Amino acid sequence: EEVDFHGGFSMIQRQQRQVLVERPKPWDLHRYVLANFHKAGVHLTAGIFFSIFGALGVPLTSVGNVVYPCSLVNTCFGSDAPVRQMTDSYNASYAQQERKEKNRAPMYTAVSVRDPLVMVASAYCYHRDGHEPLNKLVPEKELHGLGFADGAQFTADRILPFIQDMVESLDDPANKTHALSFERLTESSESFDKEVQDFVDFMFPDDLITEDERQQALKAATAFDARRNPSAMEMRHSNSKDCERKALAASSQMTPGMLRTLHELREKLGYHGSPSIH
Questions:
Q1: Spans of the chain, pLDDT less than 70
Q2: Contact at 8 Å (CB) between 142 and 235?
Q3: Residues 47-90: pLDDT tens digits?
Q4: Which residues have CB under 8 Å from 28's CB, separation 6+?
């Protein structure tokens, strides 16, 4: 998936000029990873993540981006940076390997989470409509010849490994992980605020930042609340809701094995009942 930072980096550049070095910053003491997965809200959560650290004054030299696969479109850099986004490249095995490294700072990982069935529907519509023509994961040309049912199956076959990584990343008791819910970030401004507050408090416990810094971080993140800022919808790489609803309905025609697997993954994440489009 094409990855950009939607204002997060520009904010980092502006804020770092204003910060005086006084005490160790969070990224001097810990590592922070945003684990993103295809159509789980990559652009929304990346914007929030980098705007928070930008408000806290993180220097660009401490920021990284790792995406699978790296390409001219998806530029990778800072793979060992203390503040980094990892898209389709984080899993439980990676977290375990990181923990084995001696003399490494503690790592806090936020995992972007979305209903797996909705992820499939969203990916189908997004790639069918040609928003990422260079993406080889879900090739646009092949989707054009498929209807909703076959297209949902085709898409699910290709993004299932990333959905499994998303679930397994949270099911790792030895690692400090936090679920960042796409649904709660998009349901209302109130739920957006609560989700971001919980996210900030997870990353910066024990007075790691001041209350003033916390408020600055929370305020910066509100730029990505689509209800306060309608232009934020453009940052989310959104689809036609009608297309997503049709693709979601057609997903019931996927193979029994795929449906069973996706429903099991939904349950592990705490999704019950019928999925809904946000």
A1: 1-22, 72-74, 102, 134, 173-175, 233-237
A2: no
A3: 999 999 999 999 999 999 999 888 766 679 999 999 999 999 99
A4: 82
Please say whether the dihedral angle defined by the alpha carbons of residues 50, 52, 57 and 62, taken in this order, is positive or negative.
Answer: negative
Amino acid (1-letter code) at residue 167: V
Provide the pLDDT for residue 128.
86
Give the residue carrying structure tokens 């980098």: 50
DSSP of 204-229: S-TTSS-HHHHHHHHHHHGGG-TTT-
Q: Alpha helix locations (H) across the chain?
A: 8-16, 26-29, 42-55, 92-100, 116-128, 140-144, 148-170, 182-187, 189-203, 211-221, 232-235, 241-250, 256-269
The span from the CA of 171 to the CA of 42, in Å, is 20
On whether the CB atoms of residues 87 and 2 are closer than 8 A, the answer is: no
Residue with tokens 């507050």: 197
- pLDDT for 71 equals 74
pLDDT for residue 234:
59
